[in-house]
Predict the structure.
Amino acid sequence: MSIIAPTDAAGVVAAIRAAHDAATPLAICGNASKSGLLRPVQAANTLSTSGIAGITLYSPQELILAAGPGTRVADLAQAVAAKGQHLISEPPDLSAFYGNATPGTLGGMVATNLSGPRRVMWGATRDHVMGVVAVNGSGEQIHSGGRVLKNVTGLDLCKLLTGSHGTLAVMTEITLKVLPVPERRGTLVLKGLDPARAVAALSCALGSPYAVSGAAHLPAAMATQVPALAWIGDSVTLARIEDFAPAVAYRTERLRAELAEFGAVELLDDAASVAAWAAIRDVTPMVSDPGAVWRVSVRPSAGPAVIAALSQAFDARWFMDWGGGLLWIAGPATAATHQAVIAAAGQGAWTLMRAPESLRAAVPVIPPEAPALARIARKVKAAFDPRSILNPGRMVAGL
Amino acid sequence: MQTNFTDAQLRDPDTSVANQILRTCVHCGFCTATCPTFVLLGDELDSPRGRIYLIKDMLETGRPATEEVVRHIDRCLSCLSCMTTCPSGVHYMHLVDHARTYIEATYTRPLHDRALRAVIAAVLPRPGLLRLALRGAKLARPFARALPRKGVLANRLRALLKLAPASVPPASPIEIPASHPAVGTRRGRVALLAGCAQQVLDPAINEATIRLLTRMGVEVVVADGAGCCGALAHHMGRHDPAMASAAANIAAWSREIDGAGLDAIIVNTSGCGTTVKDYGFMFRGAEPGLRAQAEKIAALTLDISEYLGRIGYAPTRPAPGLTVAYHAACSLQHGQKVVNEPKTLLRKAGFVVKEPADGHLCCGSAGTYNLMQPEIATRLRARKLDTIRATGADLIAAGNIGCMTQLAGDAMPVVHSIELLDWMAGGPAPEGITPKSA
Amino acid sequence: MIAQPEPKQAVMARRDAIIAGLRKLVPETGVIGDPLRLKPYETDGLSAYRQVPLAVVLPETTEQVAAVMAFCHREGVRVVPRGAGTSLSGGALPMADSVVVGLMRMNRILDIDYADRCAVVQAGVTNIGITQAVQAEGFFYAPDPSSQLACMIGGNVNMNSGGAHCLRYGVTANNLLGLRMVTVDGEILDIGGAHLDAAGYDWLGLMTGSEGMLAVVTEVTVRILRSPEGARAMLAAFKANEIAGACVDAIIGSGIIPVALEFMDRPAIHACEAFAHAGYPLDAEAMLIIEVEGSIAEQDYMLDRIRDICNRFDPVSIKVSQSAEESLAIWKGRKGAFGAVGRISPDYLCMDGTIPTSRLAEVLGRIGEMSAACGLQVANIFHAGDGNLHPLIMFDANDPSSFHKAERFGADILKLCVEVGGCLTGEHGVGVEKRDLMGVQFSEIELEQQRRVKSAFDPQWLLNPSKVFPLKPELPRAA
């Protein structure tokens, strides 16, 4: 097993051509910080894009940033922060969650399409990928999108590649939209709500005119894992507002009044807000949980029922983000628990986020497609990667 | 939009006007969204843009109108909602009017269609005949059940009978050509278009108009020789009778202008108002003298609400505590772009005014449309009544007898806005309307 | 006239049988087959290109669409999906051997869920129809293309439509949750739902902007948002395009993202003012419409900051709207801009390139030179916040040489957009209009990659095959 880590696109082309010609699968990664996600890949060689790092274009007044996939997300965040901007989807840093020392890269952030709490208001990572340059499974260099904020020229391969976990092409440059960092943050906290009341409160907050950009609920056991919230000593229901300072002051007051029917509302200041939401973003409450972890995405109002069903089925640890639409669930790493999660998710979607390799190899880790769509998925995979050498089996066995 | 007319075709003034209208259209499709028939039928052919295209093709090829084209043009309500929407200023009204004349000249309708149209064209504009016919219809009503359940003819006859009022009021003395002097100091002199069908169906409208105006110090003339405005024939593509009616009105009013003078010509049936305001265009090819008279008449013509807004209206009675659903007649809101005046006046008079959702959509009356296209008209009526009911109003006010007839017969009373304004300024309460105790 | 793929003679020859077959699948009035009635379906919002189709079908349910698709697939008939027919790129232009599947009868709103902030609507619901359905509860559907009154959500999905407010709220792709669609062989598929971001390939993202080439969209689940407390617009006028462009940079650089940031050049200002009477500054070379949202105090705070920035750029005038009516008039001028140009010129071509905002002044300068060289006037309207440029080229369709000049002028503008780092289309789609320019932006390898993705959905290239990609002598083989 060898690791190939080219420092430019030409190196990626050469590596993939060689693998294509030899029909030898490649495991694709950046820093492999999220290798514990989805299914393990069986491949003789690994192609890492960690060597293709660095910002290639940053035009703050055009809200545009381009960088190599190996650029660390933390470095990007720092570079844009220096110009008063931020990464819009609040991408999580899951290195602690996966017990890895290595920090995540831009390539990994885009390939997994994971987004943080701000997703609920401002869109997912995929919504802010404006352009990609990539190498497909035949070793051909392709680009989609560009360095402008609006582009509908041809099929949107940016979206298709985002979240495709390296199974279609290997990205060598990624262009993102960035936005100014809001001047101030404020978080309203309700205490002691049960899941149903919490989701009702969050629905009220998200349905208010105050542009709530974070809406989460942590039961007491989870909240105690977060230093910024532990002092509350109860379940917490959080609504965040980010904007200019006067707007945050005004809106938190108005929202506080609207949420009064759900109990006393406290306010977290800017620093506490930053810390609390970073913990929710990075799934901190489950970092030290011994079990497997699932991420379930449902219609927000369905969240409490899913939680109730899972709490009946096993000793479920959980918290909610996205107003109840995103459920983080921890439980025993067994096929039976996995089945229970799938059953409870119903119409929603689920991802086995963290589990021992044996379980991840044995069960579907994401929902299977309907047969007609599965046929199309195989053809799309073949359209990019005819010899199936890029991260085979990473998302779905045999794909 | 590109057009393909030969130079010879363009030498015909009517074709030349059509070409100019077609060239204004950029085929953007905005008009489709606010067209009642497109909303109901979901077919480009039943949208303004589709009709414009059919008309364009018909005129360019110079072919006689075909059954298919006629079907889609006939379905047009001429509500002119499209003209309100059009950002490019396409004069759809003149185009579709021209198409209707072209159809009338080149297409032979089925016998029953011709017969019905002939009857309508002959009876509706003649108050005496209409009154007689309606009394007959009342007697014929019980036989509606005997009509076959299906078939265009049966449906139309059923529609005809349904629209006939249960009681036909006697002729009102007020409509005899005469001058009704102002009460007190005269501040103006206007001619009132006494109309044709309206005075038979609901003479109270003219009575209220004259009462209110004279009380406000305006002398009102019902000019000798003036009658039907010609709209009815015009919309059926019957060019010559339409022009004859219009010419008679122009002559009658011109005599008044040259005599004691007129400040305005008042129309209280907006369908007619749209046509009278278009006399200038209708007579664009006439000899210069007549053309000038037509233009002058058109310029002097005002809807009653416009005139009242201009001279200032004030109620004398306390607010009646009633909520009125204002139904904007298409001819008023789209044809004449009179949108705010009636609502402002009603509010001033002390009514709470509500507007139904989708107020831009026609109620299905559209002149004689409810007689010719009963299925579509019935669906539009139901839709309109649903949105009106949703306002929670006590009664419906409109500025057009066609809409009033179309919307009548539901639980809510329908009156002309002028009847409410007259009432609040000292006139009698409209039939069936009582103030709510405060 | 634009080149079209060779009609399939076998299909043309079976025309009557095909129409008869379609009549068995949808209600009687839902099949149009006679040439005269097909004529109005020969074009869409880009009326310079026309082709009468073989037939038009107007299904009323997803199941009917599926039946029609299965039938056409069996018969080897090409299909062109159509919504309101407002495409400015010829996205709904038929082919002689094609069946147009019109979704206009599917205009019902199926479900509105305020608690979960989503709505399920049929493809034929108009863009504004969604907002109208939810506004009484204080919600709205964010993307607002200028044709929002008429254009339908199915078309919005297929073109990934934008609008003046997408600087803040994103384009169609950013406001979708799920789709129901029919594959080329008549299978009904659901993707997404009322939840966010399912793992797996982003079918929703791929379908959005796929211009009717991958599947026929019949139902759409959209996100609805709570309306802000209020919004107000400001007009800032400047002495030169460069200055207005620099002001845009300064506003965004200061950390303010207005909900809308629109730019008009002198000809556009004059055309729109004549139509809307909104008090546009006729003495300026360039004008910005800047809109902010929030409570009155929040609006004041933002507008004060923006005014301070504008004042640094020697403005000709700055005017803040004082009333809802005034704001409405300001937007009426902007949203009616295309039609307004229709008043001063018999015809126009609306271009839709995007450019890096920093190159605006340079691009407008070069467009001005091209305009002088070819003798056609142009008015420029620009979504300045996101670099989306709409040059409106004025021409006379009854003069063929004028039209060809306009076509060439348009192509040159789009090439310029790509040259400075932008793209051919920001929100109107490639359609047929920009099909042959795709090679300017993409290599043949890249086009082949996209074609293979289409083939994965539609191996025989039956779905809208004349769009987006330059025509090839033979259609590409299935992947």
